[in-house]
């Protein structure tokens, strides 16, 4: 206990130096914490966008479907399968889908589109297309109409009520053709979806492609991507070939890699920052030691244990660092929380650069505890390493020489 | 003389000075290397974009650029291309027919951008011919040859010599289709682009779309040196009134935006590193003047002007900082130069990078302007760091300072 008090008092013997050193730690912590928060926030958003607008967290598919995404690799959705999946704990919802390609023609023009047959009620609980409808209305169960993205609608020059002809290839090679009125137009934050997606009621899609009762995937949702691995494991125990379970990271390995590479880049930068700050603390510790050499020698000469002295010096380093870390964490908590609730929207040219890469133009922040914990751990490790200096020097201290200094 | 004194003063406490110098060296080295790295990545991206995807200049009807409709072709386009090809600094001018179509194999179908090219001319403009991994580049007497990417081939589950059907809407708005045979498979470092770009012969596509002879949608031009692009743009504009002539910067402003933004980020990065170093330098110099209180008091007492003392401290700080700065720049440059010739392998992030269009084998890129800027920034940091300690030094009362033990 006494060591702590002594250490604490010692660091205030030179207020300015202590404060400046603590300030450098404060700066490093704030910077690293805010940067990490922004990164994790962005990743969360990117995953969210892909998962919530398209793939879902998990999908049950026919085992050949992913390598060969054709209408021939569909499977029959049975009630027993549905029940099995929904009984897995932490599954928040499921939705069946029939996806395929078609040529969509309005009176003027033709464009290739991705047709997604959905169950309007179940899909609402998952990707909720209704939320993004800007004109017309959402599909009702059994609806004979379709939903189309705003960019596609403007390219094809159609609006609500106009008819769209869909032409494609059906199950086992039969030609697929159908006419559908436009029920509603949607606008997602990602332009790619607005250019390529067309939503049909599932039964209508199954009729179009001559695949009654068949689906390409059963989308399974969980609360967030941290729950996903557990649910995937449980599902894989129950689902047997010819069916297969895929998770979003397996379906989008590019996204996983983009996130991983960015994360690594961030780690490298933070490492450099902390190394520099570490040198700053080391400099301070060296100064503190050399100016008290005589004093320390006197203490040892009159009987203080070298290791007690070493402990005190270690605590001094720790306290200076702690000063910086705690204030830094507090400040970064405030900043991150503020931006968590008020994400930064990007506009103009920058926004286009983002959407071109398929990312929503917004800076989201994350409040994951590990962000803050990591800073504490890093600084603690830094302090441990730096403290080796005074400990080694105390151990090697030549008392007789130092006394005369 | 002040310079020599300042320099020698730094080395009066070797350990302390070396700590600061090492910190600065590491920080600057990291800053320079990462800037060179990012620059290298950007250069490669822009190079790929120009060489493979968009070319230096494009001539097209402005309505075509906005709507991509078949009817907005350039009448006499191939003739114009021939004339433009003779202009100085034009390495090649390739007329193309571009149409949105659907390509289907026995298994699957998808929408693509179909480009009808004249192989000889096209080879002089883009390097897709060099990216072939199988087969040949649309030459040969085969009827209806088609060139697709590996990504597309995998998606459609086809290979060399497979048969595909291409369906599109011709000039009279009729849906028409024809069988093509895959004669070549290519692969660039931009898989998103690969997936949607398919090449056939100009003549075959013109017949299929019922376009009149000599019609073209886009004339793609490659210049032998990008610096001549703006003046060529002017010339071509006068030769082709009524048509839009755009440089790659105007076609893809996001590319230049990303490049400029990346530059800004890198300078920000270095500024943050310097800020972190600032604390350490200030602390060190404060210690220095405290140690030398008596000495400074003496100098003041024997008549050295306060201005001279102020300058001396600033000079000392700047020299200390620059010692680290220069060695940091040196080592950083050496490291970057090494990787200019030996690439850095990022293939573990391959899929993700390629989706965004970046190369996985990165060369770093250094330029003099960058090094000069960084050196100036370091010098500025030294001056800033010196302001407070120097101010403290000249406020010493000589009488009191002289009495320091």
Structural commentary:
The complex is a heterodimer of chains A (405) and B (405). Chain A is an alpha+beta fold and 405 residues long. Chain A folds into two domains: 2-50 and 255-404, no CATH class; 58-221, no CATH class. Chain A has 15 helices and 14 strands. In chain A, the strands form three sheets. Chain A has a six-stranded mixed β-barrel. A two-stranded antiparallel ribbon of chain A has the order 2-10. In chain A, strand 7 (163-169) and strand 8 (175-186) form a beta hairpin. The longest helix of chain A is centred in the first third of the chain and has 41 residues, at 15-55. The radius of gyration of chain A is 31 Å and the shape is elongated. In chain A, 44% of the residues are buried. Chain B has 405 residues and is α+β, with helices and mostly antiparallel strands. Chain B has two domains: 2-49 and 255-402, no CATH class; 62-242, no CATH class. Helices cover 57% and strands 19% of the residues of chain B. Chain B is built from 16 helices and twelve strands. In chain B, helix 1 (2-10) crosses helix 13 (306-341). The longest helix of chain B has 41 residues, at 14-54. The model of chain B has no long low-confidence stretch (mean pLDDT 87). Chains A and B meet through helix 2, strand 3, strand 4, strand 7 and helix 10 of A and helix 2, strand 2, strand 3, strand 6 and helix 11 of B.
Order of helices and strands of chain A: HHEEHEEHEEHEEHEHEEHEHHHHEHEHH
* Number of DSSP E strands of chain A: 14
| Overall domain count of chain A | 2
Strand order within the widest sheet of chain B? 2-3-8-5-7-6
Amount of beta strand of chain A: 15-25%
């Amino acid at each position: 206990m006494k060591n702590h008090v002594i250490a604490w008092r010692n660091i205030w013997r030179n207020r300015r130096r202590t404060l400046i050193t603590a300030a450098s730690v404060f700066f490093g912590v704030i910077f690293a914490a805010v940067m990490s928060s922004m990164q994790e926030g962005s990743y969360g958003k990117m995953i969210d966008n892909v998962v919530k607008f398209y793939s879902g967290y998990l999908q049950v598919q026919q085992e050949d479907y992913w390598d060969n995404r054709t209408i021939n690799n569909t499977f029959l959705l049975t009630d027993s399968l549905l029940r099995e999946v929904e009984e897995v704990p932490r599954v928040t919802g499921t939705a069946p889908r029939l996806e395929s390609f078609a040529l969509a023609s309005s009176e003027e023009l033709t464009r290739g589109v991705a047709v997604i047959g959905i169950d309007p009620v179940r899909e609402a609980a998952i990707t909720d297309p209704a939320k993004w409808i800007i004109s017309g209305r959402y599909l009702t169960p059994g609806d004979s109409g379709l939903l189309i993205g705003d960019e596609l609608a403007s390219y094809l020059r159609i609006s609500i009520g106009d008819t769209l002809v869909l032409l494609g290839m059906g199950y086992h090679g039969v030609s697929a053709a159908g006419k559908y009125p436009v029920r509603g137009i949607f606008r997602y934050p990602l332009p790619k979806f607005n250019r390529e997606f067309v939503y049909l009621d599932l039964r209508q899609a199954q009729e179009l492609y001559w695949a009654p009762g068949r689906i390409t995937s059963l989308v399974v949702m969980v609360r967030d991507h941290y729950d996903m691995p557990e649910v995937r494991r449980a599902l894989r125990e129950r689902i047997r070939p010819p069916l297969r379970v895929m998770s979003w990271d397996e379906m989008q390995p590019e996204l996983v890699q983009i996130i991983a590479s960015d994360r690594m880049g961030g780690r490298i930068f933070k490492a450099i920052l902390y190394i520099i700050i570490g040198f700053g603390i080391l400099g301070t510790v060296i100064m503190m030691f050399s100016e008290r050499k005589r004093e320390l020698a006197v203490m040892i000469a009159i009987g203080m244990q070298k290791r007690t002295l070493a402990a005190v010096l270690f605590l001094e380093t720790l306290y200076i660092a702690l000063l910086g870390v705690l204030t830094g964490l507090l400040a970064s908590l405030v900043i991150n929380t503020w931006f968590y609730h008020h994400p930064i929207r990007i506009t103009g040219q920058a926004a286009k650069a983002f959407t071109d890469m398929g990312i929503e133009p917004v800076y989201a922040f994350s409040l994951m505890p590990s962000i803050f914990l990591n800073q504490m751990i890093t600084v603690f490790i830094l302090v441990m390493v730096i403290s080796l200096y005074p400990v080694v020097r105390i151990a090697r201290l030549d008392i007789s020489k130092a006394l005369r200094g | 003389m002040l310079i020599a004194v300042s320099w020698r003063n730094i080395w009066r406490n070797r350990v302390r000075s070396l700590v600061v110098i090492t910190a600065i060296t590491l920080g600057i080295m990291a800053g320079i290397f990462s800037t060179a790295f990012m620059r290298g990545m950007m250069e490669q991206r822009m190079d790929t974009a120009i060489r493979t995807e968009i070319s230096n200049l494009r001539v097209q009807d402005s309505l075509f650029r906005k709507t991509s409709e078949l009817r907005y072709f350039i009448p006499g386009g191939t003739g114009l291309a021939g004339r433009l090809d003779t202009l100085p600094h034009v390495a090649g001018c390739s007329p193309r027919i571009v149409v949105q179509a659907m390509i289907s194999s026995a298994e699957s179908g998808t929408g693509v951008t179909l480009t009808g090219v004249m192989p000889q001319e096209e080879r002089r403009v883009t390097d897709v011919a060099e990216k072939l991994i199988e087969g040949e580049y649309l030459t040969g007497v085969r009827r209806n040859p088609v060139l697709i990417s590996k990504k597309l081939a995998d998606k459609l589950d086809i290979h060399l010599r497979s048969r595909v059907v291409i369906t599109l809407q011709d000039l009279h708005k009729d849906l028409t289709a024809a069988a093509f045979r895959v004669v070549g498979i290519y692969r660039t470092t931009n898989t998103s682009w690969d997936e949607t770009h398919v090449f056939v012969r100009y003549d075959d596509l013109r017949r299929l779309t019922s376009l009149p002879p000599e019609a073209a949608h886009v004339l793609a031009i490659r210049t032998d040196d990008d610096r001549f692009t703006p003046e060529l743009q002017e010339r071509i504009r006068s030769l082709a009134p009524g048509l839009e002539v755009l440089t790659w910067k105007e076609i893809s402003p996001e590319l230049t935006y990303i490049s400029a933004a990346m530059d800004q980020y890198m300078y920000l990065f270095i500024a943050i590193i310097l800020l972190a170093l600032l604390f350490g330098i200030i602390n060190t110099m404060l210690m220095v003047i405290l140690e030398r209180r008596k000495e400074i008091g003496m100098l003041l007492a024997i008549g050295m002007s306060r201005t001279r003392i102020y300058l001396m401290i600033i000079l000392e700080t700047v020299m200390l900082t620059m010692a680290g700065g220069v060695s940091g720049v040196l080592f950083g440059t050496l490291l970057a130069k090494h990787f200019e010739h030996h690439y850095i392998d990022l293939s573990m992030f391959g899929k993700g990078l390629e989706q965004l269009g970046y190369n996985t084998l990165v060369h770093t890129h250094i330029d003099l302007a960058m090094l000069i800027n960084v050196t100036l920034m370091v010098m500025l940091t030294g001056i800033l760091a010196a302001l407070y300690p120097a101010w403290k030094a000249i406020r010493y009362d000589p009488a009191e300072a002289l009495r320091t033990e």
